[in-house]
Amino acid sequence: MRGTGAGRQRVKTARKRSAQSTRWLARQLNDPYVHRAKAEGYRSRAAFKLIELDERFGLLKGVKRVVDLGIAPGGWSQVVRRQAPGAAIVGIDLLPVDPIDGVTIFEMDFMADKAPGVLMEALGGAPDLVMSDMAANTVGHPQTDALRTMALVETALAFAIDVLRPGGTFVSKVFAGGADAALVAEMKRNFTTVKHAKPPSSRKGSVEWFVVAQGFKGRAVPTDDGAAE
Q1: Is 76 known as a binding-site position?
Q2: 38 lies in some domain
Q3: CATH code for position 156
Q4: What would the pLDDT profile of 166-197 be if each residue is shown by its tens digit?
């Protein structure tokens, strides 16, 4: 690789490297957030997405228990550890994740029936924040990829509604266009405010957005006649 006149790094296409991987490497080499992540000890540039969302929405203020869905490689939990050092944090991912001091990590499928129970037992109480950076593996078909990721968002939301403490927050990655109408309606039934955001560190060409639902209203309590109040 070599520098350009503008100070950007150009990557030579190696014989065994595809054009796509060459473009990815060039983007990484010239991405200021990648350099910041390395300089500040974060495992990925994704850490800055949570930092910027926190600056806008105050996600981490006063949190005591946090669930990190799709924790790999660990950048979001690193941010929580720095911003709320006393908080208990549990994370889950299909991929292996190197240990993070103060974070309990499970290498398992969040969609497995036993996953919610495992997370809550480890956390030891209702979380203030459920955060999800999960995305389905892409198959190259935009509509299919969006549907697969939205299924993860729906499952994460159902989990959050089931476990959050009153007043808690749910934040999740979604695709361009945000959560669909039915999902937004479900959030509005259960949270005081629901907003979409694209933090500055999210690449302009990326289809990712984030949905932030705050002020969890709490689960309905059944009355004597079986109805919910």
Answers
A1: yes
A2: no
A3: 3.40.50.150
A4: 999 999 998 765 568 899 999 999 999 999 99
